[in-house]
């Protein structure tokens, strides 16, 4: 791939991206957007999108969290080009790389005890110095340590000059090497650290582009030295293109968190009734732009997505915009599909055929599946209807008398269609010298038990003649 807006990647290797969540909780909004960006970038270039579960924190990683992440990705329609890789199953390979670095002199054994390291940090705090390992075992002979003393393996990082990353989103970023300490690759118990495991897995998976949140930018400067050191030891250690995407903030400008509302995609699906295509489109536009276009089909998103369109500033999550976009997608969605989703929201024991018939009038008003289900509830309410306080307020004595006359008038209509019903009620309103709304308001209360519903003639048709007249009579005689 030629260099350019998607980063300087000059080899002919196939583009490979990866999404690498830690299974310590749900698939949060930021992670979902990272997954989407990686997936779209790979598909845009005819490459591969891979999934890695970073489950090395065995105390916090759970199967429930793994299942939730996989379920969330599946709901978003992100299918990967290989089975997930589980980082915990690759510890032997991680150790192998650490030992190769040790043997080649790019790493060393550190015998500093936890007590010594804590004293070092205390002195640094007291002297207001940067908190970093001071290299006390960097140039010492391991034979100076008493036999059997536990040790960690630390990377021997450069102490002079700087490391530069030409980030595909952030641009040129430089860090002085003196600011990067000799961090641990293998703990005293022989287990690899996250910093080592990530780099080894990225290389072994053939990742050409690392697209992730910009909270990982500092990690890139700690991970690159491993890649550079291994280039003289093993083949295949090509430096990937980095693209660090700004984080998502809430409307108040603070980093998105639980206090801003739901943060896991399953909550947007299960609790708020968001459609996956709406969520994907919203996440796509959250920090990425392509001219003035707001809505994208999956095919359009694949064709258009590049890293040049990703902004450098944090984006703000706006629930109102998400709901508006979701409403657009609901209006475009298949009626049978929406009926199934609404039926699930209503507990499943409703007539989905009737729901599907009602969708053309129901979905014009709804911004989410919950609102769709609430709007459809009148279809399945058992007589006598329980009226809301506002609806009951519309049914005084005069209104009930008018309902009785409406019932008598509608009873003679054989062609129970919106046109015929509208013609009859408009004629009656003119006879009374009233606007049609004066008839429709109490009629809506009688038919639905509420003051909001689809158009009153649609309600009459959907309920059918027998049910409509029975509901009207219940209130007229009440």
**Strand fraction:** 5-15%
Shape: elongated
**CATH class assignment of the domain at 381-476:** Mainly Alpha
As for the CATH topology of the domain at 381-476, it is: Arc Repressor Mutant, subunit A
Note down, in words, how this protein is organized.
The structure is a single chain. By secondary structure, this protein is mainly α. Among the domains are: 250-332, Orthogonal Bundle (Glutamyl-tRNA Synthetase, domain 2), CATH 1.10.1160.10; 381-476, Arc Repressor Mutant, subunit A (Orthogonal Bundle). The chain contains 19 helices and twelve strands. Strand 1, helix 1 and strand 2 form a beta-alpha-beta unit. Helix 1 packs across helix 9 and helix 8 crosses helix 10 (319-332). The N and C termini lie far apart (76 Å).
Question: Topology of this structure?
Answer:
Elements: E1 16-19, H1 29-44, E2 48-53, H2 63-75, E3 85-86, H3 91-103, E4 107-110, H4 114-126, E5 152-155, E6 162-167, E7 171-176, E8 184-186, H5 194-204, E9 209-213, H6 217-230, E10 241-245, E11 248-249, H7 265-270, H8 276-284, H9 298-304, E12 315-316, H10 319-332, H11 335-345, H12 352-362, H13 369-376, H14 389-393, H15 397-411, H16 418-432, H17 436-448, H18 456-463, H19 465-476
Parallel strand pairs: 1-2, 2-3, 9-10, 11-12
Antiparallel strand pairs: 4-5, 5-8, 6-7
InterPro entries: aa-tRNA-synth_I_cd-bd, aa-tRNA-synth_I_codon-bd_sub2, aa-tRNA-synth_I_CS, aa_tRNA-synth_I_cd-bd_sf, Glu-tRNA-ligase_bac/mito, Glu/Gln-tRNA-synth, Glu/Gln-tRNA-synth_Ib_cat-dom, GluQ/Sye
EC number: 6.1.1.17
Catalytic activity: tRNA(Glu) + L-glutamate + ATP = L-glutamyl-tRNA(Glu) + AMP + diphosphate
């Amino acid at each position: 791939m030629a260099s350019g807006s998607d980063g300087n990647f000059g080899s002919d290797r196939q583009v490979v991206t990866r999404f690498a969540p830690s299974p310590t909780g749900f698939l949060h909004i930021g992670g979902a957007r990272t997954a989407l960006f990686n997936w779209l970038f790979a598909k845009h270039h005819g490459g591969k999108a891979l999934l890695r579960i970073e489950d090395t924190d065995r105390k916090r990683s759970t199967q429930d969290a793994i299942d939730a992440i996989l379920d969330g990705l599946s709901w978003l329609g992100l299918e990967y080009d290989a089975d997930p890789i589980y980082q915990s199953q690759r510890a032997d390979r991680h150790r192998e790389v650490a030992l190769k670095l040790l043997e080649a002199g790019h790493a060393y054994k550190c015998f500093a005890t936890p007590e010594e390291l804590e004293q070092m940090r205390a002195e640094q705090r007291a002297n207001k110095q940067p908190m970093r390992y001071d290299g006390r075992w960097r140039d010492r002979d391991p034979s100076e340590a008493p036999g059997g003393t536990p040790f960690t393996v630390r990377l021997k990082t450069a102490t002079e000059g700087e490391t530069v990353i030409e980030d595909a989103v952030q641009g040129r970023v430089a860090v002085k090497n003196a600011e990067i300490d000799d961090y641990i690759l293998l703990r005293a118990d022989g287990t690899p650290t996250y910093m080592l495991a990530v780099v080894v897995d990225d290389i072994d998976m053939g990742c050409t582009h690392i697209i992730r949140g910009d909270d990982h930018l500092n990690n890139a400067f700690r991970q690159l030295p491993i890649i550079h050191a291994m280039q003289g030891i093993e083949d295949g250690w090509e430096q990937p293109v980095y693209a660090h995407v700004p984080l998502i903030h809430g409307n108040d400008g603070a980093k998105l968190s639980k206090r801003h509302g739901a943060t896991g995609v399953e909550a947007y699906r299960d609790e708020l009734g968001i459609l996956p295509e709406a969520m994907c489109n919203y996440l796509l536009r959250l920090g990425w732009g392509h001219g003035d276009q707001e809505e994208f089909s999956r095919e359009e998103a694949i064709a258009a997505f590049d890293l040049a369109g990703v902004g450098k500033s944090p984006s703000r999550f706006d629930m109102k915009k998400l709901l508006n976009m979701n409403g657009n997608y609901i209006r475009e969605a298949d009626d049978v599909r929406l009926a199934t989703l609404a039926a699930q929201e209503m507990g499943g024991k409703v007539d989905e055929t009737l729901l599907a018939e009602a969708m053309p009038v129901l979905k014009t008003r709804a911004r989410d599946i919950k609102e769709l289900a609430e709007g459809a509830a009148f279809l399945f309410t058992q007589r006598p209807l329980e009226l809301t306080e506002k609806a009951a307020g519309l049914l005084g004595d005069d209104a009930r008398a008018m309902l009785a006359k409406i019932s008598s008038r509608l009873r003679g209509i054989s062609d129970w269609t919106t046109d015929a019903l509208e013609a009859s009620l408009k004629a009656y309103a003119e006879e009374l010298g009233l606007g049609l709304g004066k008839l429709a308001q109490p009629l809506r209360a009688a038919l639905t038990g509420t003051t909001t519903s689809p158009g009153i003639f649609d309600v009459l048709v959907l309920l059918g003649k027998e049910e409509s007249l029975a509901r009207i009579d219940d209130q007229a005689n009440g």
